[in-house]
Amino acid sequence: ISGEFEQSWAHAAQAVAAARTLDNGALLADALGNLALNALFGGDPQTLVAASDEAIAISTAAGNPWGIAYSHWPRIEHQFDCGAYEHARTRVAETLPTVRTAGMPVFIGFYQAVACRLARLTDDSEGALQAARESEAAFLSMGGDNWTIAGLGIGATGALISGDIAGAGERLARIWSPNRTPSLPLQGYRWALPAFGEHALRARSTAAALSFLDWYVDVRERHGGHREAAEGRYWRGRVRAAESDDTGAKDDFTQARATFARLGGHDHLWRIDAALSMLARRMGDPLGAAEATARAKSNLEILAGGFADPGSRRALLRKLEDKEDE
Fold this sequence. Notes:
By secondary structure, the chain is an all-alpha fold.
């Protein structure tokens, strides 16, 4: 929760090793779920999949709602990162009823935040807004700085979905002030990250967002959150591009792309390539623009093919057209 991922990773590995010496499946599943989560943030998909799948098997066999809710979450996040959107959507739908019985509002916050992102992919604005609002309420009900930041972050996304730019800005201002550096890089900031980037672009006001993004990228790298830092670089690149800092934007996109290519993060790869294409055109590199567009289009066509229904496929393919119009 503190966001000090390197330390958390070490403790999680020790906890799994210790739990394997005990005859306590629930304890082992909890430790494995924590290890999987650290692997998500740190960028180790092999450990994530292995730990999450083992925890899911243990918790499902025991009929443990808490364990099922916790262990599925990093796996779903990984599926979304990989662009396996249909698998992620199915798993959210199948697991959410169990999540609601676990008695922990934060799990609802996790799952509905993912559901919001999935709905936005297929232009289901009503579903995305409903999920964002439930996620916000669940996080805020937990109290404490970390979950309040998470709730305000996904709440800002909900406000952006509904067209309430001012409401999004008000929430984000409660999270971050350029004159006040946080004492801890709390996990909750990851739910605010996309909202800072999107709000800056839509409100055409970038100073606060750049201040936050500079801090976020730096602190995530220093604490071993390499996947999180890469997402921060993507959003900082978008904001820098809006400010005509083409060199800085290209550097951010290039570094983010290298990380997500290593992780198999196809959800971000097509977005980054679309951004690189626009940047290359503006920098007078038509060949580079064409190559980046071709990569984005090829990637997106493969990902769209994973959807079962034609409507979702068409909606996803339109995303590239939307990027080209920005």
